[in-house]
Specification:
The structure holds 2 protein chains of 2 kinds.
Chain A: H1 17-46, E1 51-53, E2 60-68, E3 81-85, E4 92-93, E5 97-101, E6 105-112, E7 135-140, E8 146-153, E9 164-170, E10 175-180, E11 204-212, E12 218-223, E13 247-253
Parallel strand pairs in A: 1-5, 2-6, 5-13
Antiparallel strand pairs in A: 2-3, 3-4, 6-11, 7-8, 7-11, 9-10, 12-13
Chain B: H1 15-38, H2 49-82, H3 100-126, E1 159-166, E2 169-174, E3 180-182, E4 185-188, E5 192-199, E6 204-208, E7 213-217, E8 223-228, E9 233-239, E10 251-257, H4 259-276, H5 278-281
Parallel strand pairs in B: 1-5, 4-10
Antiparallel strand pairs in B: 1-2, 2-3, 5-8, 6-7, 6-9, 9-10
Helix pairs in contact in B: 1-2, 2-3
Classes of the chains: A mainly beta, B alpha+beta.
Chain lengths: ~260, ~325
């Protein structure tokens, strides 16, 4: 096959500097726009999770959390999940982001509605990093009967019986708290099935403890140490690795 | 005409000698700077014997590499400056054929370098008992120290520390102190330490940076690494294996303290955990743990109160609502 090439004799006028600069600018803007879109669409989506802000009163702040066997999201309703109570409206917010002031005593009330699962490392049955290294625990059945009242303990043994549902841990602050589940035998097969759970009609455990927020501001991750990702290999994924479910961030705000 | 080093005429300067002299001066200066100024600040520092050896290794490698790098850059620069094409010179360079002297020098030089690195690397791996790296469950090179069920200050008894990784936190067990466990890593100074590194879930990597210790933490594997802390102070422990979304936050701090202070701390934690009951709640100390088996309960966890489920899967989808 022969290929004919036609040579043009006229001189091709070079593209002007202005035109080249304009082309470069347009190309840059297109790429920058694409990057911005991707960042907002994907990364920005994660930050859409609301943050519940707690304000201090007399040097203390009261944080209220609950952990449920399921949640009320449209996409992952069967994932175990934490909720945070908005102090202004008293409504439960499906988030794991909350903020507290720095250098403040943080009083946590934690409602445990989920059933038990053994800890992978029973060392985390030990309460650590709270004031006194203890928690105060009460348990209720679905009829509101309180069968354990204000027991202060430093250990909730996850391996001796069906005792622990999840944990609330802030590793960088050394805070490790096993979260009790409602007593299994007394409340068997009657766990809360609609989130956010309420104390009425559901068995639950109520735990209170306090710790000091750090003197400096910053974001401190918190997580569950029970591998509670249902349906995932060894329970390590899913809600365990997703903000808004079993991991969260405590934003410590400097005053 | 372009002139190269291989066709030097009597009127040409002696490029080889000139290059050698310039290289010698620069290489000597660089090596002196590396050894006397940079070496003391090289990572990972000198907090432990393994860290000291690593620092020494890096310094030796830098001293070895600097003359080679300088030679390459010098020859490159010299060629551009001296043997560049002059205006009006459109001749080709002389064809180059074999130069026995260059070839022998090249082969001899690279052979010496490679053999040196082989011998030096082997000595530096064997001498400090694995150089702070994980050697697997049956280490070939063992650190000298007396094995004993009890550790006490003053002697050369090996301190055993089990490092347990779990998404996303480290804990440490001390079998010579009743198997007590802590989220703090404390070590005595001047005492040989055996780390037994393992994991309860995915693969992590225990990296005690300033100690120069790094060992993978694999589930159901006992990965052994050795060190001896040589100075007091704090060090950082990081996970060095991408292990999930909070891998980057999986770190904490360890401390090297005096042997007496360590004894006091370890005995105190042991006593507290005994009193709290957590010591009895821990599994018997073992080199590895099967996370799907709870020693107190057995492997058949679904039978416990009819609720829990382990065996690799926690919470089948139907469990939370109707356990």
């Amino acid at each position: 096959m022969r290929v004919y090439v036609r040579l043009r004799s006229e001189v091709v006028k070079p593209v002007s500097v202005t035109a080249r600069a304009a082309s470069l600018l347009v190309a840059f803007l297109v790429v920058a726009g694409l990057v911005t879109f991707v960042a907002i669409y994907y990364v920005g989506g994660a930050s859409a999770l609301p943050t519940v802000h707690y304000a201090a009163s007399a040097g203390q702040v009261n944080v209220v959390l609950q952990e449920d066997p399921q949640n009320n999201s449209a996409s992952k309703p069967d994932w175990v999940s934490y909720y945070v109570q908005d102090p202004a409206t008293q409504k439960w917010v499906h988030t794991t982001l909350f903020s507290v002031p720095a250098n403040t005593k943080v009083n946590v009330t934690l409602y445990g509605y989920d059933g038990c699962t053994p800890l992978r490392n029973n060392f985390y049955s030990q309460v650590q990093g709270t004031i006194g290294n203890t928690v105060t625990l009460s348990q209720f059945d679905q009829h509101g009967k309180e069968y354990l009242t204000d027991k202060t303990t430093s250990v909730i043994n996850a391996w001796s019986d069906c005792n622990v549902g999840h944990t609330f841990a802030i590793p960088s602050l050394g805070v490790y708290v096993p979260v009790a589940s409602p007593n299994a035998q007394l409340s068997a097969n009657n766990l809360c099935s609609s989130s956010p759970c309420t104390t009425s009609g559901n068995p639950y455990a109520k735990e209170t403890f306090s710790f000091m927020s750090p003197a400096h501001g910053g974001v401190f991750r918190w997580q569950c140490l029970v591998p509670c990702g249902g349906g995932f290999l060894d329970g390590n994924s899913g809600p365990m690795q997703t903000l808004g479910y079993m991991m969260g961030e405590m934003d410590v705000v400097s005053s | 005409m372009t002139t190269g080093p291989q066709n030097e005429s009597p009127h040409e300067p002696q490029h080889g000698r000139r290059l050698f002299l310039i290289w010698l001066i620069l290489a000597l200066a660089a090596d002196l700077v590396i050894w006397f100024i940079w070496y003391p600040h090289m990572p990972p520092g000198d907090m432990s014997d393994s860290a000291r050896h690593q620092q020494f290794d890096i310094a030796v490698l830098a001293v070895s590499a600097a003359p080679v790098i300088i030679f390459v850059l010098l020859y490159f620069t010299y060629s551009i400056v001296v043997w560049r094409v002059r205006p009006g010179d459109e001749d080709d360079g002389e064809p180059i054929y074999g130069n026995t002297k260059v070839q022998v020098s090249w082969i001899a030089g690279t052979t010496v370098i490679v053999l040196f690195l082989f011998v030096f690397g082997t000595v530096e791996l064997v001498g400090p008992a694995g150089a702070g790296a994980g050697e697997g469950p049956a280490p070939i090179w063992k650190l000298a120290g007396t094995q004993s069920a009890v550790w006490a200050p003053g002697g050369k008894t090996m301190l055993d520390v089990q490092v347990i990784g779990q998404q996303w936190a480290w804990t440490y067990r001390y079998p010579q102190f009743g198997g007590m466990e802590s989220s703090e890593l404390m070590l005595p100074v001047d005492s040989p330490v055996t780390f037994h590194v393992t994991s309860l879930d995915v693969i992590h990597s225990f990296w005690a940076y300033q100690l120069g210790v790094k060992a993978d933490a694999n589930p159901q594997v006992d990965n052994v690494a050795y060190t001896t802390a040589k100075s007091l102070g704090g060090f950082t422990v990081r996970c060095n294996e991408l292990c999930g979304i909070w891998h980057g936050a999986m770190f904490n701090y360890g401390h090297v303290v005096s042997q007496a202070a360590f004894q006091t701390w370890a005995s105190g934690v042991q006593s507290k955990e005994k009193a709290d009951g957590i010591l009895a709640a821990l599994p018997a100390y073992a080199l590895t743990y099967d996370p799907t088996v709870i020693p107190q309960l057995g492997a058949n966890l679904p039978k416990v109160d009819g609720i829990t489920g382990a065996a690799g899967y926690y919470y089948p989808p139907s469990d939370p609502v109707t356990p």
